[in-house]
UniProtKB/TrEMBL annotation:
SMART domains, per database record: CBS (SM00116)
InterPro entries named among the record's database cross-references: ACT-like_dom_sf (IPR045865), ACT_dom (IPR002912), CBS_dom (IPR000644), CBS_dom_sf (IPR046342), Diverse_CBS-Domain (IPR051257)
Gene3D superfamilies: CBS-domain
Pfam families in the record: ACT, CBS
Domain named CBS: residues: 7-63, 82-139
UniProt entry tagged with the keyword Cell wall biogenesis/degradation: no
Protein name from the UniProt record: Acetoin utilization protein AcuB
Keyword field: CBS domain
Domain ACT: 143-219
PANTHER family in alphabetical order: CBS DOMAIN-CONTAINING PROTEIN, CBS DOMAIN-CONTAINING PROTEIN CBSX3, MITOCHONDRIAL
Length: 222
């Protein structure tokens, strides 16, 4: 999965001389939290976030009257509050890499650059949607997970068992089991109507299957 497949391309941008009040109006109207700042040729100059706008509103509030504050904000331009050193992505960047950048820097969006121009933006909300799609999340699906030792062939065994039972696997994900070295969670999502049958089949084959929260995982270790 790549950024170019999931980024938003119907971009809303502003110029550096856009009044801050106008930027806030755009964000409120479009229900967005990030505004790339560009020149007349779609080149990125900076980015303004809803946090930047809140800070601009709050910074002089303790010393100015409402009238004075409104006057100051009418004169204030986006250029004065935007972040100029912007972390960006490219269309061919993997979704995992984009998510890692957002997480590491505690930011909510990456403008996407191609040929020195802004061609899109990908946000943490977009990445959450990708994650839910990858997990096969839907109202008619159910999940189970198996705790397994790190070994070759376990995915093939689970897949073969489901194939023989005629059960379609919606999605599969593997994660290390926190607090248990060399153990992994194999998360399998199937049709809700097949969940009980799938768990029974895998249990009969010796797998430790969990379909609901349990506090103590020790009994489920292989």
């Amino acid at each position: 999965m790549y950024v170019g497949w999931h980024m938003k391309t119907n971009l809303v941008t502003v110029s550096p001389d856009t009044p801050v009040l106008k930027a806030r109006e755009i964000m409120n109207t479009k229900k967005i939290s990030h505004l790339p700042v560009t020149d007349g040729k779609a080149r990125l100059l900076g980015i303004v976030t809803d946090r930047d706008l809140k800070e601009a509103w709050a910074s002089p509030a303790s010393t100015l009257s409402v009238y004075e504050l409104t006057y100051v904000l009418q004169k204030l331009k986006v250029e004065a509050i935007m972040t100029k050193k912007v972390l960006t992505a490219t269309p061919d960047m993997t979704i995992e890499r984009a998510a890692s950048i957002l997480h590491a820097h505690r930011i909510g969006a990456l403008p996407v650059i191609q040929n020195d121009k802004v061609v899109g933006i990908i946000t943490s909300t977009d990445l959450m949607e990708v994650l839910l799609q990858a997990l096969g999340m839907s109202e008619d699906s159910g999940r189970m997970f198996i705790i397994a030792k790190d070994r070759i062939g376990i995915l093939a065994e689970v897949g073969r068992a489901m194939q023989e039972a005629g059960i379609n696997i919606r999605s599969v994900m593997t994660l290390p089991l926190k607090g248990f070295e060399d153990f992994w969670q194999l998360i399998v999502r199937v049709n809700q109507a097949s969940l009980e049958k799938a768990a029974q089949i895998l249990g009969d084959r010796g797998f430790k299957v969990i379909t609901k929260y349990v506090e103590d995982l020790t009994p489920y270790l292989p």
